[in-house]
Amino acid sequence: MGKRVVITGMGIVSPIGNSLEEVLESVKNGKCGIDQITKYDTTGRKVSLAAEVKDFDITKYVEKKDARKLDPYSQFAIAAATDACHMAGIKEEHDEETDDRERYGCIIASGIGGISTTEREHERGMKRGYDMVSPHYIPMAISNMAAGHVAIRFGLHGYTTCTVTACASSGNAIGDGFHYIRDGYADLMVVGGSESSITELSIGGFTSLTALSTATDKNRASIPFDKERNGFVMGEGAACLVLEEYEHAKNRGAKILAEVIGYGANCDAHHVTAPHPEGKYAAKCMELALKDANLSTEAIDYINAHGTSTHLNDLGETRAVKSLFKDHAKELVMSSTKSMTGHLLGASAAVEAVITCLAMENGIIPPTVNTKELDDELDLDYCLGDKARTGKINYAMSNSFGFGGHNASLVFKAVEE
Questions:
Q1: Which residues face 302 on adjacent strands?
Q2: pLDDT tens for residues 375-395?
Q3: Most buried residue among 42, 177, 311, 414 by CB atoms closer than 10 A?
C-alpha cells in the first residue's frame, strides 16, 4: 500500500479567470472565455477566435525588468505555481536548516513551450543576422524552463522535470508527481502545465491541419459533442497544484482540498494526430486509472472529458466511456470545460484538474456550454446548459488525450466531511 497523496494548494491563470475565485464563478455561470484574437491581425485568416487570458499582470509576481526575460508561458506558470504554493503555505523565503526542500520537486508541463519567443527571434535573425538574436532566447523558449523557474523561486531541490506529451502533458505531470510521492520518493511536488500558443505560426499550423474551428460566432466555436462541431478553439494559460504526502500535510497543518487516488497512462499507437476511432486505448487508460485507485466503475460520479469539439475525439471518447462503464455510463455525468476555456494544449489537463477539484469542493457539476444538438451517437449526460448543475461529486475522473496517441486519466476523491 502506497502513501496517500493530497492536494494542498492550487493556482490558475485562464481565459475565464486568473484566480480560483474568478474561475469558480465563471464555471458556475457558464462563462465562455472565447473571443476575437487580439494578439495579431487575423484579417484574411481562416481562424479568428481564441480563448485568450485577460487582465493578467505578471508584475504582481516578478519585477518588470525580469518579466522581459520570460516567455508568456513561463509567466503564466510562475503566477499559477506561486498562488498554489502560497495557498499551501509554501513561501519563497525559508530557512534551509528547518525547512529542508530536498524532498520537494516540480513537474510543470508544456506541449510547445515558448513559441512566441521563437517566432520573434526568428524574425529578428532574418532581419539582422542570427548572431544578433537575444541571449535570452534559448532559456525563454525551451519547454522545461517554467519548471526551472518555479524550482528556483521556491528552492525545490528534488526531482524537477517537464513532461511533453501534447495535450496529455499536464495530465502526465500530475500523475507522475502523484506516483512519485505515493511511492515514497518525495514529500511534496508542484505539478501542472502552462501554454501560450495563440501566435500566428501556432494557429497557422493547427489551421492547416484542419484541427481548429473556423466559426466566427464565439458562442458556436467550442461546442463539444454538438452535431455542428468543426474543430477546437485554442486557449492559453496555466494551472498548478501542490501535491503532498498526507501525513506530511497533516503535520504542517495544511488544508486538504482533495485527494489524488488514481492515474492511468498509455498510448493508442495508432496515428500521429487521430485518436483510435473506437476509443479502445482511451478506455484502457481509464481502466488503468480505476485499478490504480482500487475503484469500481460504479464509483465515478463525474468525468471531466477531454472533449475537444473535434469529430473524432468526442466520438471516440464517448465510445470509450460506454465501453468501459457500460450501464453506469448513463448514470454518471460527463462534461467538457473546454467549451468555456478553449483547449490549452499541454496545460489543459491541469486547468481541468483544478476546475474538477473546485467542483467537488463546491457541490457543482461544470456545464458544457453552447452545445445545442447532440450528434447521433453521443447520447450521454454531458451537463448541457449555460450554468453549472448542483450535485455532489465524491469521485471524479479527468481525461486527457494527445497527439501521438498519448492518453492520461486521473481520479480524484473529495475530502470527507
A1: 333, 396
A2: 989 999 999 999 999 999 999
A3: 177
Chain centroid offset of residue 410 CA: 12
pLDDT score of 417:
63
Q: Could you tell me the three cell numbers for 147?
A: 519548471
Give the Cα separation of 110 and 146 in Å (integer). Answer: 8
Burial classification of residue 400, based on how many CB atoms lie within 10 Å of its CB (0-12 exposed, 13-18 middle, 19 or more buried): buried
Residues 216 and 284 in one domain: no
pLDDT surpasses 90 at 98: no
Exposure letters 32-59 (e unless 16+ CB within 10 A, then b): bbbeebeeeebeeeebbbbbbbeebebe
One domain, residues 75 and 112:
yes
Catalytic residue flag (residue 167):
yes
Q: Residue 322 sits in which domain range? A: 263-414
- Pair (368, 244) in one structural domain: no
Tracing cell 497557422 back to the chain, one arrives at 204
310-353 pLDDT per residue, tens: 999 999 999 999 999 999 999 999 999 999 999 999 999 999 99
Return the amino acid letter for 101: R
Q: Are residues 176 and 288 in the same domain?
A: no
Q: Is 291 found in the same domain as 241?
A: no
If one counts every other C-beta atom within 10 angstroms of the C-beta of residue 96, the result is 10
Catalytic residue among 32, 162, 167, 383: 167
Residue 171 identity (one-letter amino acid):
G
Same domain (yes/no): 153, 119: yes
pLDDT > 90? residue 97: no
Q: Same domain for 146 and 276?
A: no
* 215, 230, 258 - which closes a domain: 258
Q: Is the pLDDT of residue 8 over 80?
A: yes
CATH number (domain holding residue 176): 3.40.47.10
Starting at the edge strand that comes first in sequence, how are the strands of the sheet with 406-414 ordered? 160-161, 104-109, 188-195, 237-245, 5-13, 258-267, 406-414, 395-402, 302-304, 333-335
